Amino acid sequence: MSTGNGFCLAAIILAVLGAVVPGVGLFLGWGGLVLATIGAWQGATGMAVAVVALSAVVFWLLTPSLWVEAMIHRAGFVEVADEAPMLRIVSIGLLVAPLVAIAIRKKQEGARQ
After folding, report:
1. How many whole angstroms from its chain centre is CA 44?
2. Whole-angstrom Cα distance, residue 26 to residue 43?
3. What is the C-alpha separation between 44 and 10, in angstroms, rounded?
4. Is the pTM of this model over 0.90?
5. Quick check: 90 pLDDT over 60?
6. Longest Cα separation, the chain
7. Which domain covers residue 44, as residue numbers?
8. What pLDDT was estimated at residue 77?
9. 55 near 15, Cβ under 8 Å?
10. Which partner from 45, 74, 75, 89 sits 20 to 30 angstroms from 104, CA to CA?
């Protein structure tokens, strides 16, 4: 097992824990996506994509804090919350980060050959 696969395995564990632990599940998922980005940067592309898919399902279906934030902004209570929907922005950014790391790594490998 390479180091990248180890990071991605830890990311999968954090993503699953994020789905079942109330309160801090979103932050565990974010930690898992950071580890998946590191794993993708080290070459574990398949597992990194699996973490992104699992985290996307967990974020959009099982994370109530993202739902509450979306309802607050949709109802027009922006002055009560932050101006920008920061939980959603960070979540989407972290979901894209492993995919960007994979693309950069592939481009660098192509330039070396």
Report:
1. 16
2. 25
3. 12
4. no
5. yes
6. 54
7. 3-112
8. 64
9. yes
10. 89
Calpha distance 59→68 (Å, rounded): 12
DSSP structure string for 62-95: H-HHHHHHHHHHHHT-TTTS-SS-HHHHHHHHHH
Virtual CA dihedral for 71, 76, 80, 81, nearest 10 degrees? 50
CB 64 within 8 A of CB 45: no
Domain count, the chain: 1
Angstrom distance (rounded) from CA 89 to CA 4: 26
Distances in Å between the Cα of 67 and the Cα atoms of 38, 42, 46 are 28, 33, 29
Residue 99, token pair as written in the block: 């995919």
Task: Say how far apart CA 66 and CA 36 lie, in whole Å.
Answer: 21
Is 55 within 8 Å of 33 (Cβ atoms)?
Answer: yes
Q: Which amino acid is at 47?
A: M
